[in-house]
Structure formats: structure tokens, C-alpha cells
Amino acid sequence: MSHTLRSVALRQLHEDHNGINKTLLRAKQLVYWPELNNELQLFVLKYNKCDRFKNSNIKEPLIPHLVSKLPFEVIKLFRFNKKTARRIILHFRSVFNTHNYPKIIYSDNQPFSSSEFKSFCGVYNIKLITSSPRYSQSNGVTERAVLTAKQMLRKANFKKNRHLRHIA
Q: What is the CATH number of domain 74-164?
């Protein structure tokens, strides 16, 4: 392959700005020439526009969560828009009576930090762990997934939505 075509191929392979590893994986599926890996790594490292998509420093360490061994032993709950603690408790009683009450609930704060929800957890010996109100990113498992999805969408939008097929 000529050097001109290699240059075009390198630009196209890296147009999603997914970093060295994902770009190398994509290249292995599409093209080959001697020293492809080295040239691609140098190209990605030189391409400073990728910096606009890098994460800022996380302010609080990620909190590791226990992985449940049994169904409903540990659950994670997130914001329910326009739902009161009372309505959520009524729904949970119906679900938990069928599937068992959890030992631990990880959640964001509203409406799970209300005294009514805390009392519900106390009655059923459920340990309620809420994310830090100021640093929601301390909920590591969920926040990492959200961060990855947001980055992919920003990158797709940056390319005028031409590459939404890569988001799956």
C-alpha cells in the first residue's frame, strides 16, 4: 500500500477517536501492511484532538460495591422521577414479597434518603448505602458505564452522527 493510502487509512481508522487499542482492533479487521501497528500507535499518540474527550480528574475515589451471590441480595436503585418514597415502598413490598428482601440497597439520594424510606429499610434489616450527594461519581459501577456511554455519544456527535452504528 502506498504511503498516501496508508495516511488516508490511518486517518479513517482513528476517526472515532477511540484510542490505540480500539483503533488497532479495528485495523486488524480491515487492513494490513508491515509496521501497521507501530505507525498506527504513533499516529494516535500525535493526534491531539483526542484530548478534548479525555476525562477530568475524579474528585472522590470510586467505591467498590459488593457483588451479590443470590438474586435480590444486593440491588442498585436510581432516581425515579416524580415518584414519592411511599409509592416506591408500596411497589418494592410487592416485588420483595415475591422475590425476597435484599440485604443491601445502593442508591442515589432522592427519594431514597427520605426518613420514610430509611425507616422501611430498617424494618426489613436492609442496609441502605447512598452515593455521596456532592460526588455521584463515587458510585463506581454505574458512573463508569454512564461515563463510557456519554463519551461515545460525544464522539459520535463530533462526527455529525455518521458513526452511531459503532455504539452498541
A: 3.30.420.10
- Whether 60 and 88 have beta carbons less than 8 Å apart is answered as no
Could you give the 3-state DSSP secondary structure of residue 104? strand
- Mind listing the pLDDT tens digit for each residue in 83-108? 788 888 898 898 889 888 999 888 87
Q: At what angle do helices 19-30 and 36-46 cross, to 10 degrees?
A: 140
| DSSP conformational letter for 107 | E
Using the 8-state DSSP alphabet, how is residue 17 labeled?
-
CB of 43 closer than 8 Å to CB of 15:
no
Residue 114 burial class via C-beta count within 10 angstroms: exposed 0-12, middle 13-18, buried 19 and up: middle
Boundaries of every domain in the chain: 3-53, 74-164
Average pLDDT over the chain, rounded to an integer: 76
Within 10 angstroms of residue 54's Cβ, the number of other Cβ atoms is 8
Q: According to the model, what pLDDT value does residue 126 have?
A: 92
For the whole prediction, is pTM greater than 0.85? no
Q: Residue 51 has which C-alpha cell? A: 484530548
Burial 118-153 (b: 16+ CB within 10 A, else e): eebbeeeebebebbeeeeebbbbebbeeeeeeeebe
Residues in a beta bridge with 35: none
